[in-house]
Write a structure and sequence with these properties.
2 copies of one chain form a homodimer.
Chain A (H helix, E strand, L loop, with lengths): L29 E4 L8 H11 L3 E5 H7 L1 H10 L3 E9 L6 H21 L3 E5 L10 H21 L3 E5 L15 H8 L7 E6 H4 L5 H10 L3 E6 L1 E2 L11 E2 L8 H10 L6 E3 L4 H4 L3 H15 L2
Helix pairs in contact in A: 4-5, 8-9
């Protein structure tokens, strides 16, 4: 359930982000997903975002657990930062009951962490096909079954779930929910205040139904998280770490953001890039570039 | 417009395929796409298929041109082999008029080659986004524009075009037609005897609309070519050469073939696998394995 382990070089100057703030505050809606600058510790992330005027962050469970959940919540809230999303729950597609029960338990913990952090949404990556299994329809059905238990429980904890559609190239091994439309079909089994959808431009940009599905999500109050990264080729081996810096690829990111706005979404736009080239650089430099690229290609 | 150049080792015994025919004839509908055993010359392909009882082959323009078009047609017809498809035309998405005119010229030559070979279908891979372009809708529109000229011309030469949907992971650099439904939307602008669609399980297996779109294609007489390969992960760098041998991956290939049958398709099922591991082996061994796997996972 974690990103693969990739060596992260120690940045030359870990506090660099605080030394050279950008010339003007970051765009108000920009949220920085912590994996974009995974070389930063949580305190570095908080310091770097504060210095750069970034007011919102997306967090991941593992680094939060490493730093300590309570400490993380205090650090982030103390700095006045909002948490747009926590990544991630999900992985509901196992065929054995014990595995699904374990997944449900883990997701309950993820809900509690989301509540403690005051995050807007717990992002769900639904899971791929179990080994040797070829039944996509069955796997999608099992997601709905687990959500029947998880969604009301999360709602009782004040946490809304967001089903994320992942690119079809991840359908077998990570997420059998491949389009925003499929994510909405699942979400609509539940009240809108319990289950929404996550629209990540990287995963759904190719889909001609995207504009209509964004409207469908937004107008029904189910668009709970919006993320951006760019699509660049050639894809690397394993394809997971091939996301591009904003503007380096071929996604019409501004058009995507405008479609999201047209659907009535007014929340943060989270920059989530998994890219070893960015991880090898000074975090402050990366954040300045992200802010600049966001202005030029998204805002 | 060609597959990337990958070193192909010289098989230890180039006539090996003729030495150990399988115990029973190959399934009647099995067609061998020539790129699956790209280490074979065209004469080796013809000899190997004949020995193994494979009655249908899918050809590629470049090896046919290298051997000579007329000679290839005579060799294949002389052995009593049928040609299920010629790969490939397309690449219609350029923004400059000169580029599109050149593409149209090249596609007219591809039509002539298809006619000379007596192939059922000229497969079209539509093309990706031009460099720096982010307009998927525009690119899809340009495909239709070129087809308005090419389709009647091909029809006058007795050649039917088949629009192939490629997996969305190829949307930016190879083919902006990402689903069978999109391919059908384009094909339906033209008479069914002029333009159909190609359904390759590898590209469309993840799509929950696939069963309905296969029916739509088959019942309207537009399903002109069916191809199979399996989906295996992790995907290799560049993703093009990651196709898996039948049964090695997670596609329900038998279910796919049954859906194709239910749609009324009665033509060949072409095995098209781009896989360096297969290219490094003795071609006859690979063909025997393909036949065995086809029996166990497709037929």
């Amino acid at each position: 359930m974690t990103l693969p382990s990739v060596p992260v070089p120690t940045p030359a100057r870990s506090a660099a982000a605080t030394q050279a703030p950008p010339q003007s505050p970051a765009p108000a809606r920009l949220s920085l997903n912590q994996e974009t600058i995974r070389q930063w510790s949580l305190p570095e992330l908080v310091a770097g975002c504060t210095a750069a005027g970034v007011r919102t962050v997306g967090l991941w469970r593992e680094p939060v657990q490493r730093y300590g959940l309570r400490k993380s919540a205090q650090l982030v809230a103390g700095a006045g930062l909002r948490v747009s999303s926590l990544c991630r729950g999900g992985f509901f597609t196992g065929t054995d009951r014990a595995g699904r029960a374990a997944a449900l338990d883990d997701n309950r913990r993820a809900v509690e962490e989301t509540a403690e952090l005051g995050a807007d949404t717990l992002v769900l990556v639904s899971g791929g096909l179990p080994p040797g299994d070829r039944d996509l329809v069955g796997a999608r059905g099992r997601i709905a079954e687990v959500l029947c238990e998880l969604a009301p429980w999360a709602s009782a904890h004040g946490v809304r779930l967001g089903i994320e559609a992942l690119h079809p190239m991840f359908a077998s091994d990570r997420c059998v929910v491949s389009t925003l439309g499929q994510a909405l079909d699942l979400a609509e089994l539940f009240p809108a205040e319990q289950v929404g959808v996550v629209a990540d431009a990287y995963h759904v940009w190719w889909d001609e139904r995207l504009p209509v599905d964004l409207l469908r999500a937004g107008k029904s109050g189910r668009l709970v998280s919006v993320q951006v990264a760019d699509w660049v080729t050639p894809l690397p081996e394993g394809v997971l770490l091939g996301r591009g810096q904003l503007g380096d690829g071929c996604i019409d990111l501004r058009g995507f953001r405008e479609a999201v706005d047209a659907a009535g979404y007014r929340g943060p736009v989270e920059v989530e890039i998994f890219q070893p080239d960015l991880w090898a650089r000074d975090g402050g430099d990366v954040l300045r570039e992200v802010i600049d690229r966001y202005r030029r290609h998204v805002a």
